[in-house]
Amino acid sequence: MTDATASPRRILVVRNDKLGDFMLAWPALASLKRASGANHITVLVPGYTAPLARACPWVDEVLVDPGDHAGRRAQRELLDTLRRGRFDALLTLFSTPRIGWLGWRAGIPLRLAPATKWAQVFYNRRITQRRSRSEKPEYVYNLELARALQRELGQVTPEVAPPYWPLPAAERQAQRQRLGDELGLASERPWLFLHPGSGGSAVNLTAAQYRDLAVGVSARLTHPPLWLLTAGPGEEAAADGLAQDLGDAGLEAHRVPARPDLAAFARTLMAADLFIAGSTGPLHIAGCLDRPTAGFYPAKRSATPLRWQTCNRAEHRLAFSPPALPGQETEMSRIDLQAAAEAIAERIHQQDKSEE
């Protein structure tokens, strides 16, 4: 039986891969912290996502992982850090042999991970999930692991719900005020954010498809929207090019100015009335903030809209993918952009009515 009075624990959570993967760990982090506010939650993340980890309200401490290719000295320093941490439990959301070995060498008594790959030999608690079947959202798989750990620790498994990054209501107005001042934006028009980049991993629409989508959405709205394009490192030129294409099509488009770090960029997304992107890190940031999202996904099983569903409320998310035809699962040109434009415009209309 779970004991709500079970003592607080020092828990190390590892999600040391891409940005979107880390954002989909926030529901699990929220559950671990809410099980006992006195739990000390440490995350091990790559340097790229560390600014967001430090902004996470469910995290007490951030450790930066030097990565698989770091030298022996860096790996030894990480091992020493883990030993000094005196963790009660290790929860690895994405298991690799190196992390399993480090947790075992650090003497962490309870080590839990998915029962996949040979890395599981380093863990003394393993949960079978069969994620390759993509039968659930990634964040639900992560939550299942967190709850399994809580049961092992004798703690409650609290219900958690969006937003998983709860910010004060004033934050949205502050971000809109800042962007409005920077770019001269009209606050009464819909602000539709569009992230055309892919971060080098997700299959995405082409710039021409995004242009056609934006034209289709704009034509269906009573008040012409403002298109705000976001860009990751190295994607600025592509975003500027799309902004120019949208301008040539008669739409008003701007690129969101650069921010000093990833956490500051993430907070900017609070200004969005709706965020449009492929299944990328920024889409999952917007989902964590519970902003309305429209995501574009391939049809292959490992990357479906269900598996990589954003973690905002159901009424705040739209998802589009091509027909699941053999051999054409990643052929994004088969997505019906007119149907997508209709659905996005209808969602904006619904939001307008709810705010009247």
What does this structure look like?
The protein is of the alpha/beta class. The chain has 12 helices and 12 strands. The protein has 2 domains: about 10-155, 3-Layer(aba) Sandwich (Rossmann fold); about 170-355, 3-Layer(aba) Sandwich (Rossmann fold), CATH 3.40.50. The protein is globular and about 60 Å long. It starts with 9 loop residues before the first strand and ends with a helix. The model is unreliable at about 1-5 (pLDDT under 50).
Features:
transferase, globular, 356 residues, 12 strands, six-stranded parallel sheet, Rossmann fold, alpha/beta, 12 helices, single chain, LPS_LOS_Heptosyltrfase, disordered N terminus
Strand content: 5-15%
Q: Outline the biggest β-sheet.
A: 6 strands, parallel
Residue-averaged pLDDT: 94
Task: Indicate the percent of residues in helices.
Answer: 25-40%
Structural class: alpha/beta
Ranges with pLDDT <50 over ≥5 residues?
Answer: 1-5
CATH superfamily grouping of the largest domain: Glycogen Phosphorylase B
How many individual β-strands?
Answer: 12
CATH class of the largest domain, named Alpha Beta
**How many discrete domains?**
2
**Major sheet strand order:** 3-2-1-4-5-6
Gross morphology: globular
CATH architectural designation of the largest domain: 3-Layer(aba) Sandwich
- Oligomer status: single chain
Note the total helix count. Answer: 12
The radius of gyration computed from the alpha-carbon positions, rounded to a whole number of angstroms, is 21 Å
CATH fold-level assignment of the largest domain: Rossmann fold
Please provide the ordered H/E string of secondary-structure elements: EHHEHEHEHEEHHEHEHEHEHEEH
C-alpha termini separation: 48 Å
